[in-house]
């Protein structure tokens, strides 16, 4: 029962093939050349004191506590800024040094609040050092100048800045710059008057993105979590994984109490976390309060019809209702009349048992997951070209990257911790090409400017990627040796792409990108030496999503940018476990490990493991389920942790489908939009209560460890097992680790994975097998998973979604930092302070034409539906394109999105909808009622 | 038509030189504006061209113009023969006061650009070697061998290198940089151009303090003239491929930006904050590129070193202090101004010989040499030779060569307090010993002077000495590191001044009340105690 303290060695690690050996206090120490004396000493267990140094920040030299004596050199240099040299002789314990430490601490304490007992932090680095250096007696007295009358800034909902305790060590300023890359903080004033400021305003109104890096950097309680102030310090830590996005940050959940009395005090990012290395964003760091929100449903509930009130029942009753109901529907309408949708927010173990339940208890393949609506084209496209349905690198690979090609993704908002790593590499000299209809932050942000911004019009992706490839091939910039050795179908592809119809000059005007910029970007990418593609839903959520993914793969193969660090094709997976739910085979056509259900050899593995025969025919995808529901052949649905009524396109169609079902079972934390159509509600567990694994965008399998026991009486995987059992297929595990053992036994890419191995290694990137017992950071080294990479001609077929006179604008969608997807979690936290409502961003010229100013309520309509939003005029947009987010159900963004989807995977074309925007007049608003006035806090769950 | 020279230097203008110039013009003379000869007690010093040479007239008022032109006014004789000037050894300052500062033809006819011409015939490595041979050391105050600094930059592998001139002359009692900028700016430009050639730099910056508007204007004009004359920009002096562009940047009222790394931060548009070393600016400097940072006087001496050879400069001086120093006499001195002399001259010769002793006529109590962070020199120490090492051994420093003279009305405890106060006001705030220590230093000195009994005074002395050690050894840069020097020298030479109570001005300097605010507070977990 302890807090996990991660050691801080003072200055960052240095990579160097050459070592040096020096003597510190008589001991020989060997370190890579370039390492600081401070780090060398601390690494050897010699505790040189420090306050301003931190091993995730460059050495600064402010506090002057780490001074040492170096033989042969004058004076007392700071060990944090002194690099080790061969033969150097250092003393850290002389009288001179001790006297200096004492003197410095005495100065610090002369301007610091004196009552440690009343301090929220209770024990901080200043206090520890005061004792260590013997400076408990402060001879300067209390009558002198001080900052003890300064007032605190409590504007940020999650943390406080109290200047009285500030020692101006600048760790917060440096963390905001070097780690987060936002540069929101600086120092105001000079000398004794120096005070940290968030750019001349308070924290909330500033550029601060509330990532919390400054809070964990602060050695005193100047920057402290409000939860620590109100609850006190935590007493124990549990290392787990964030449940928001696909970066998959590792956190130490710091809590008080045990068992059902456990209370989370704060979430601290873990330095040893493979994906995040000690950094986090506002969501994972602070927005965990939803798990304890009053909206949380804790009991199973049933009702006969969706017009009835919910009735709380026992687990047995609920499960019995489900089993009986599903079996009856199958008897009446056929085996294929029911299905399940697994969650990409739940653990691998929880998802695995859902697909097992569908296959073994429902006896069909009607199982799908939300990857359908986001990265299914990635799965298809990369499988076709490389043989693997996942990204090729790890995040650390960006550190060796020279040129980034970022298409259809906005990492600083949607994958903030990785976005910060990108910015760090860009500040160090790498270049970036941004292809996005909007001028996203990475086009121009402090100390970063894109080499090229290609403002491709929504729908023009494949034409753009073909144009880039055309330039590379026709200008002779492709890697012939790589193509000859490692790829197939090369000649046909080269002939295809060399066609002048694919040239920048031929397509530039249509897609809205200057041909000269396309040529320059292509040359930059081809030149590398290490070029990497990073992409997101702006690539996949299109009618040619899969084609575009193949186009990206082609580009990487053409230039040999595969199979080593610093390059590759990197899909930025959205959800915390969308990679996992795909890996776990929540697909109508694939078993775990992306093996087609028609393959006899694969089916035999499961048939013998599970003891029954399995359906070799692919089942229904989510869109097929809706169509079949409306047609009357699909009657029952189990939905785990996904709000399809809010997040799937064409809401009217989805609602009609749900209304047509006889039995809808929703398992979730809250009563969501989908639950409005449900007959059975099963309460789920939050990530704080789960015991399992999540897999992030790097294929990294991370442990999710329970911080507290399930608040609803059962674990989610147990519930699924009980449903299967009640339906006639006995499923039982004593512990979730056994589920992972079964996954490992049946899935070659997971062969070496187990909870024990994960505890020992921290995390593992699949494939994990005999050939790669410690996992696989970089894939396709030497050869592709399918052998040779396949170059597939990618014909540009414009979407049928065209602008018309009636709908002259194109709508595209996205996310912002503080809210997460449909907002189920984040709307139930203080994050709504920043984003209480979705806004429609519109270019000034489009706005002026329509008489729209920022703040106006506007009507957004497409051929499918209409909704209302508040407008924001923004020159980040281009004329002809509007943008909104979908974090608030009342926005109803998907009321207007269409049924268009990717030809290969049915991934909806969220990113291209022809719309019109009109300002709503006062009269119309009064007639319609509440309109788009959105309350600042969460939307209450509706029955 | 008589030609009359009236200085345009800011010091001369401050005592009416512009009005004097107008008066002469109105009286029908051809008025030309030169730099100041650096004999400040004679300003405005007007020089009339005659067949015998330029005849000087001291402290001229506008109403004297007619008499002077008619030959009816007492004169100083030929200015360059004036013993004050003739006894000096003006090497760096040789041209200051002779010409209009931006007259390129006059500069060239008076030895200007001979240095660059010779440098371009040598390999860059040999140019650096010449500077090393000369023994030139940084005249800003650090005294670091210039040749070694240049060699480090020359050998650094980079496509982009810079030459920066530190013209943030912030030390009290110094004005040599300003006078050179206003009197002979081309010598600086030539020196920087030679440096650029030697180290492989293509861009240069002159960082001038904001409080020197006249110098900034003159410098900018000189740069324009030099560029028009093909001596800045591309293909300098006809040399294909040799490009050097020079920009002026103005400070914003921060003494600390005279410290080279703060200056670099300021040039980059950031807060003027000291950077930790290593890495040294010669390798990682402006915008992280290899950078030469030198003082105005160092760079302005380079042309002569190249024109006449390094050995000619090294032949002057004493010990390891080779060449000349441009000393500035200021404060309570009868004859203040610029005295350029070989190293080795004594302080007494400067103050009593050239300076003529105190202006008030009262006994000389002490002189502060090297700026506000320099030691107070008194008694026997006044016979010290001006030499870097000799001063260092005596616990003092030459610095930029400023000498501020005090008579016996000076209170050394006031001066010690001022040293701490200056540090508090100008501290960049990055490191603890300087940021907090300087503020506490003022408070402790006040406590010494208002101590109710010998015991508490003694405790305060001990605390002050501990504080001085912490600041001296613990500070990040010389701002905090050298503040103890004047304090300790004041204590050493004039302990009696600290036993007197200060004149109390309760509005601005309330002394710390030892009864109400006990000097010792315990910092512990049990809560505050008194």
Task: Describe the secondary structure blueprint for this structure.
The complex is a heterodimer of chains A (943) and B (530).
Chain A: E1 19-24, E2 27-32, H1 37-43, E3 69-70, E4 89-91, H2 95-109, H3 125-133, E5 137-138, E6 159-161, H4 171-180, E7 186-188, E8 195-197, H5 213-217, E9 223-225, H6 226-231, E10 236-241, E11 250-256, E12 263-269, H7 282-286, E13 301-302, E14 311-312, H8 315-333, E15 338-342, H9 348-362, E16 367-369, H10 376-385, E17 403-407, H11 411-414, H12 416-427, E18 431-435, E19 444-445, E20 448-449, E21 452-454, H13 461-474, H14 480-486, E22 487-488, H15 490-497, H16 504-511, H17 515-527, E23 531-535, H18 537-540, H19 545-558, E24 568-571, H20 578-583, E25 590-591, E26 595-596, H21 600-610, H22 622-631, E27 636-640, H23 644-647, H24 651-659, E28 663-668, E29 680-683, E30 692-695, E31 700-704, H25 716-726, H26 736-746, H27 755-761, E32 763-765, E33 789-790, E34 809-814, E35 839-842, H28 844-849, E36 857-861, E37 866-873, E38 881-885, E39 913-919, H29 922-928
Parallel strand pairs in A: 1-4, 15-16, 15-27, 17-18, 17-23, 18-21, 22-33, 23-24, 27-28, 28-29, 34-38, 35-37
Antiparallel strand pairs in A: 1-2, 3-4, 6-9, 7-8, 10-11, 11-12, 13-14, 13-29, 19-20, 25-26, 30-31, 31-32, 34-39, 35-38, 36-37, 36-39
Helix pairs in contact in A: 2-3, 8-25, 9-25, 9-26, 10-19, 13-16, 13-17, 13-19, 16-17, 22-24
Chain B: E1 3-7, H1 10-14, H2 17-26, E2 30-34, E3 46-50, E4 53-57, H3 65-70, H4 83-86, H5 104-109, H6 114-119, H7 124-134, H8 146-155, E5 162-167, H9 176-183, H10 185-199, E6 203-208, H11 213-228, E7 245-250, H12 260-267, E8 291-295, H13 296-308, H14 310-314, E9 317-318, E10 321-322, E11 324-331, E12 337-342, H15 347-354, E13 364-369, E14 376-377, H16 388-393, E15 402-407, H17 412-426, H18 432-435, H19 437-449, H20 454-474, H21 478-482, H22 484-493, H23 495-499, E16 521-522
Parallel strand pairs in B: 1-2, 5-6, 5-8, 6-7, 11-15
Antiparallel strand pairs in B: 1-3, 3-4, 9-10, 11-12, 13-14, 13-15
Helix pairs in contact in B: 7-8, 7-10, 9-10, 9-11, 10-13, 17-19, 17-22, 19-20, 20-22
């Amino acid at each position: 029962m302890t807090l996990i303290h991660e050691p801080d060695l003072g200055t960052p690690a240095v990579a160097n093939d050459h070592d040096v050996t020096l003597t510190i206090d008589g001991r020989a120490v060997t370190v890579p050349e370039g390492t600081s004396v401070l780090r060398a000493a601390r690494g050897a267990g010699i505790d040189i004191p420090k306050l301003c140094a931190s091993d995730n920040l460059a050495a600064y030299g402010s506090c002057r506590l780490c001074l040492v004596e170096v033989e042969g050199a004058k004076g007392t240099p700071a060990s944090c800024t002194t690099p080790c040299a061969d033969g150097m002789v250092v003393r850290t314990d002389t009288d001179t040094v001790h006297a200096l430490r004492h003197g410095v601490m005495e100065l610090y304490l002369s301007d610091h609040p004196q009552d440690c007992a009343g301090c929220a932090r209770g024990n901080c680095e200043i206090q520890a050092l005061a004792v260590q250096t013997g400076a408990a007696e402060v001879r300067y007295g209390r009558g002198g100048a001080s900052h003890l009358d300064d007032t605190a800034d409590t504007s940020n909902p999650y943390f406080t800045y109290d200047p009285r305790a500030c020692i101006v060590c600048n760790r917060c300023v440096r963390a905001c710059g070097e780690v987060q890359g936002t540069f929101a903080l600086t120092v105001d004033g000079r000398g004794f008057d120096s005070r940290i400021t968030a750019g001349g305003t308070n924290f909330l109104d500033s550029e601060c993105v509330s990532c919390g890096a400054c809070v964990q950097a602060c050695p005193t309680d100047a920057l402290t979590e409000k939860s620590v102030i109100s609850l006190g310090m935590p007493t124990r830590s549990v290392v787990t994984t964030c449940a928001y996005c696909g970066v998959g940050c590792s956190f130490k959940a710091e809590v008080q109490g045990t068992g059902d009395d456990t209370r989370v005090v704060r979430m601290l990012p873990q330095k040893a976390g493979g994906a995040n290395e000690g950094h986090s964003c506002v969501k994972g760091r602070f927005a965990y309060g939803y798990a304890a929100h009053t909206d949380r449903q804790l009991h199973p509930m049933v009702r006969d019809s969706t017009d009835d009130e919910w009735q709380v029942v026992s687990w047995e009753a609920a499960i019995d209702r489900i089993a009986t109901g599903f079996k009856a529907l199958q008897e009446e309408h056929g085996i294929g009349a029911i299905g399940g949708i697994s969650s990409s927010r739940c653990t691998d173990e929880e998802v695995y048992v859902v697909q097992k339940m569908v296959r073994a208890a429902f006896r069909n393949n009607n199982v799908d997951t939300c990857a359908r609506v986001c990265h299914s084209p990635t799965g298809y496209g990369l499988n076709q070209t490389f043989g693997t349905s996942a990204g090729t690198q790890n995040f650390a690979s960006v550190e060796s990257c020279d040129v980034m090609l970022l298409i259809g993704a906005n990492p600083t908002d949607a994958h903030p911790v990785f976005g910060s790593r990108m910015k760090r590499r860009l500040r160090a000299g790498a270049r970036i090409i941004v292809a996005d209809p909007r001028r996203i932050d990475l086009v121009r942000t402090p100390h970063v400017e894109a080499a090229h911004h290609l403002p491709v019009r929504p729908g023009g992706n494949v034409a753009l990627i073909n144009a880039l490839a055309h330039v590379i091939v026709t200008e002779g910039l492709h890697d012939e040796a790589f193509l000859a050795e490692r790829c197939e179908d090369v000649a046909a592809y080269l002939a295809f792409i060399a066609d002048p119809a694919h040239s920048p000059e031929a397509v530039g005007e249509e897609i809205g990108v200057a041909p000269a910029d396309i040529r320059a970007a292509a040359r930059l990418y081809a030149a590398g030496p290490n070029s990497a593609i990073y992409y997101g839903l702006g690539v996949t959520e299109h009618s040619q999503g899969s084609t575009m993914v193949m186009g990206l793969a082609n580009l990487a193969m053409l230039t040999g940018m595969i199979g080593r660090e610093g390059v590759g094709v990197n899909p930025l997976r959205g959800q915390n476990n969308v990679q996992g739910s795909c890996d776990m085979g929540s697909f109508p056509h694939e078993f775990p490990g992306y093996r087609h259900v028609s393959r006899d050899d694969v089916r035999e593995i499961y048939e013998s493991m599970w003891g029954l025969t399995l359906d070799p025919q692919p089942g229904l995808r989510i869109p097929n389920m809706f169509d079949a529901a409306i047609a009357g052949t699909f009657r029952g649905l189990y939905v785990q942790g996904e709000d399809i009524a809010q997040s799937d396109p064409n809401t009217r169609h989805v609602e009609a489908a749900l209304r047509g079902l006889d039995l809808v079972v929703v398992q979730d934390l809250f009563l969501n939009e989908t639950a409005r159509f449900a007959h059975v509600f099963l309460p789920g567990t939050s990530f704080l209560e789960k015991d399992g694994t999540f897999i992030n965008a790097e294929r990294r399998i991370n442990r999710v460890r329970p911080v507290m026991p399930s608040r609803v009486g059962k674990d989610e995987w147990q519930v699924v097992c009980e449903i299967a059992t009640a339906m006639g297929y006995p499923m039982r595990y004593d512990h979730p680790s056994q589920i992972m053992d079964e996954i490992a036994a049946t899935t070659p890419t997971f062969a070496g994975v187990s909870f024990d191995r994960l505890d020992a290694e921290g995390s593992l990137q699949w494939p994990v097998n005999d050939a790669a017992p410690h996992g696989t950071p970089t894939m396709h080294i030497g050869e592709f998973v399918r052998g040779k990479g396949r170059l597939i001609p990618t014909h540009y077929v414009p979407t049928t979604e065209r602008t018309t006179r009636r709908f002259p604008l194109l709508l595209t969608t996205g996310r912002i930092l503080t809210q997460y997807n449909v907002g189920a979690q984040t709307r139930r936290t203080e994050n709504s302070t920043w984003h209480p409502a979705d806004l429609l961003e519109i270019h000034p010229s489009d706005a002026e034409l329509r008489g729209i100013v920022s703040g106006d309520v506007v009507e957004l309509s497409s051929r499918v539906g209409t909704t209302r939003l508040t407008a924001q005029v923004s020159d980040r947009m281009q004329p002809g394109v509007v943008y909104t987010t979908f974090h608030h159900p009342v926005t109803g963004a998907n009321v207007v999105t269409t049924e268009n989807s990717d030809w290969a995977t049915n991934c909806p074309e969220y990113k291209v909808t022809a719309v019109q925007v009109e300002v709503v007049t006062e009269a119309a608003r009064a007639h319609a009622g509440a309109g788009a006035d959105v309350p600042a806090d969460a939307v209450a769950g509706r029955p | 038509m008589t030609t009359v020279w009236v200085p345009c230097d800011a010091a001369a203008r401050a005592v009416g030189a512009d009005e004097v110039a107008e008066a002469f013009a109105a009286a029908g003379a051809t008025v030309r504006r030169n730099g100041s000869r650096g004999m400040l007690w004679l300003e405005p010093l007007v020089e009339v061209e005659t067949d015998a040479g330029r005849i000087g007239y001291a402290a001229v008022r506008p109403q004297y113009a007619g008499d002077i032109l008619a030959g009816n006014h007492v004169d100083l004789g030929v200015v360059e023969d004036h013993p004050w000037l003739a006894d000096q050894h003006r090497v760096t300052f040789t041209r200051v006061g002779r010409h209009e500062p931006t007259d390129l033809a006059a500069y060239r006819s008076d030895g200007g650009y001979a240095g660059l011409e010779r440098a371009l015939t040598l390999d860059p490595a040999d140019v650096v070697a010449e500077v090393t041979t000369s023994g030139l050391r940084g005249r800003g105050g650090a005294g670091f061998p210039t040749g070694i600094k240049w060699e480090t930059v020359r050998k650094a592998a980079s496509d982009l290198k810079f030459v920066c001139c530190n013209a943030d002359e912030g030390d009290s009692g110094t004005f040599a940089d300003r006078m050179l900028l206003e009197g002979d700016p081309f010598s600086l430009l030539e020196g920087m151009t030679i440096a650029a050639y030697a180290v492989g730099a293509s861009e240069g910056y002159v960082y001038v303090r904001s409080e020197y508007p006249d110098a900034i204007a003159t410098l900018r004009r000189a740069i324009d003239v030099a560029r028009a004359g093909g001596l800045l920009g591309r293909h300098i002096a006809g040399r294909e491929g040799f490009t050097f562009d020079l920009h002026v940047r103005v400070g914003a009222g921060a003494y600390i930006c005279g410290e080279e790394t703060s200056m670099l931060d300021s040039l980059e548009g950031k807060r003027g904050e000291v950077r930790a070393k290593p890495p040294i600016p010669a390798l990682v400097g402006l915008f992280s590129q290899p950078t030469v940072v030198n003082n105005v006087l160092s760079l302005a001496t380079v042309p002569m070193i190249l024109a006449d050879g390094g050995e000619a400069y090294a032949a002057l001086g004493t010990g390891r202090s080779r060449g000349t120093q441009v000393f500035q006499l200021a404060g309570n001195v009868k004859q203040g101004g610029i005295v350029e002399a070989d190293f080795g001259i004594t302080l007494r010769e400067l103050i009593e010989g050239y300076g003529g002793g105190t202006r008030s006529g009262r006994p000389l109590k002490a002189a502060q040499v090297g700026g506000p962070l320099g030691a107070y020199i008194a008694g026997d120490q006044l016979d010290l030779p001006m030499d870097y090492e000799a001063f260092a051994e005596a616990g003092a420093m030459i610095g930029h060569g400023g000498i501020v003279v005090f008579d016996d009305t000076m209170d050394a405890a006031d001066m010690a307090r001022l040293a701490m106060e200056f540090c508090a006001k100008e501290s960049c705030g990055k490191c603890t010993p300087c940021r907090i220590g300087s503020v506490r230093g003022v408070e402790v000195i006040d406590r010494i002077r208002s101590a109710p009994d010998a015991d508490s005074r003694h405790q305060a002395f001990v605390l002050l000495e501990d504080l001085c050690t912490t600041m001296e050894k613990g500070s990040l840069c010389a701002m905090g590191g050298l503040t103890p020097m004047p304090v300790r020298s004041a204590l050493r030479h004039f302990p009696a001044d600290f036993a007197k109570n200060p004149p109390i001005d309760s509005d601005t300097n309330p002394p710390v009340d030892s009864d109400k605010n006990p000097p010792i507070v315990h910092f512990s977990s049990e809560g505050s105690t008194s």
